């Protein structure tokens, strides 16, 4: 008797299991026929019937989502596909479609999340590349190069000759200061593009040149940069030339930033030590920074016996500049004030006073003084550019970035300050 009961129970379990596996199957089969013939709305009705009978069947939700996808009903498609991957997370195609839908919705991080799941679960190398290329495209469009590394590595693991990935990897490594890796990636890209037009190769030569420049490998730099000197890379290439370094150094020299000027000239010399203008400016800096004690003493002696107020004011102006370059900033400010009492419109002395404030770490007073100076109507274009460039440099340090940006935009209108002002403006704009 017990055996009969047991046999009946086992038979009943099989019957129930079979019945459960058949739940919604006929509606699903009908839905498949309709979907394959392009009758998506009718197919959805059948899938809904199937889901009502077996709500935990992944396929029913997935195929319903695919119909909505074909009908371009994004919200409905996402709802069905999200339910599908909840029931069966390892289906790559469902994640791939969700990646597309979130991309359409401009929800980039969710799109990337599902493309990554698709990459994880898909066995096809070609499909894996497609998912990672989609992620790369999204990140590049949003200027999120820093988030691309793992995706670039995945692409290059599958296809080491993927030119697009090699370029962005070189660019990313340069951005991070890993110049050897950047150079290797750029060189690999150029090997693949051998014989291609400058339109195709210029970006790789630029990244290769940028890496070589920062690695202090100057022997072939000129040749590399000449090949990068194309289209949008011309201006970028210019920044790695001795002439550019000289022009920027000259601008900083004119606003008494001698150390900054020396550093730039040192860079220029490492690239090419035969540039005569670089040598000339180095001599000017050396002359400007020699000890001025004897000259200061001599001028003070003259001042002690001078009675003419105008001549005294002129001598105060000379001493203000001498004290400034000697590093005696409080004395420079004192002499400037004494001059300005007699000659309140003497803007050259007003400028020396502003720079002395800055050098004595009274940045706010320097900024305020320069704000007044740049309003002066009698300034020639180059002097106005000099004062605006100074204001841009000092306001940036003080944290008045809007003031700095406005001043630098004015300064770059003059050729003497164009390179230096543009470079600093780009740096501030990027950070603030």
From TrEMBL:
Residues 1-19 form the signal peptide. Gene3D superfamilies: Tetratricopeptide repeat domain. It comes from the Bacteria. PROSITE patterns: TPR (PS50005). InterPro entries: TPR-like_helical_dom_sf (IPR011990), TPR_rpt (IPR019734), Ycf3 (IPR050498). This is Tetratricopeptide repeat protein. Transmembrane segments: none annotated. TPR repeats lie at residues 58-91, 92-125, 313-346. It comes from Sediminitomix flava. Keywords: Repeat, Signal, TPR repeat.
């Amino acid at each position: 008797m017990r055996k009969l009961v047991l046999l009946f129970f086992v038979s009943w379990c099989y019957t129930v299991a079979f019945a459960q596996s058949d739940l919604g199957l006929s509606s699903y089969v009908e839905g498949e026929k309709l979907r394959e013939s392009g009758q998506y709305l009718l197919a959805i009705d059948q899938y809904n019937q199937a889901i009502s009978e077996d709500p935990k069947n992944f396929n029913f939700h997935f195929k319903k989502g695919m119909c909505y996808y074909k009908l371009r009903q994004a919200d409905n498609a996402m709802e069905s596909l999200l339910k599908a991957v909840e029931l069966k997370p390892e289906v790559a195609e469902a994640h791939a479609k969700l990646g597309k839908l979130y991309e359409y919705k401009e929800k980039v991080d969710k799109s990337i999340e599902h493309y990554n799941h698709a990459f994880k679960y898909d066995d096809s190398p070609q499909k894996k590349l497609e998912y990672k290329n989609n992620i790369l495209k999204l990140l590049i469009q949003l200027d999120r190069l820093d988030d691309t590394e793992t995706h670039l590595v995945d692409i290059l693991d599958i296809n080491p000759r993927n030119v697009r990935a090699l370029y962005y990897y070189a660019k990313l490594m340069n951005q991070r200061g890993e110049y050897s890796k950047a150079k290797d990636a750029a060189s690999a890209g150029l090997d693949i593009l051998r014989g291609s037009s400058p339109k195709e190769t210029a970006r790789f030569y630029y990244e290769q040149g940028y890496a070589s420049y920062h690695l202090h490998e100057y022997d072939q730099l000129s040749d590399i940069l000449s090949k990068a000197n194309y289209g949008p890379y011309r201006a970028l290439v210019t920044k790695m030339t001795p002439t550019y370094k000289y022009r920027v150094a000259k601008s900083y020299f004119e606003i008494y930033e001698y150390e900054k000027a020396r550093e730039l000239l040192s860079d220029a010399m490492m690239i090419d030590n035969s540039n005569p203008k670089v040598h000339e400016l180095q001599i000017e800096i050396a002359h400007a920074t020699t000890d001025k004690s004897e000259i200061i003493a001599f001028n003070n002696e003259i001042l002690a016996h001078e009675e003419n107020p105008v001549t005294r004011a002129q001598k105060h102006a000379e001493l203000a500049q001498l004290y400034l370059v000697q590093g005696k900033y409080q004395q420079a400010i004192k002499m400037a004030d004494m001059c300005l009492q007699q000659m309140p419109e003497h803007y050259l002395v007003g400028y020396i006073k502003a720079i002395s404030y800055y050098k004595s770490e009274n940045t706010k007073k320097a900024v305020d003084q320069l704000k007044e100076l740049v309003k002066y109507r009698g300034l020639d274009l180059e002097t106005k550019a000099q004062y605006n460039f100074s204001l841009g440099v000092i306001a940036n340090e003080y944290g008045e970035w809007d003031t700095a940006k406005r001043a630098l935009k004015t300064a770059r209108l003059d050729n003497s300050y164009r390179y230096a002002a543009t470079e600093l403006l780009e740096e501030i704009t990027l950070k603030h």
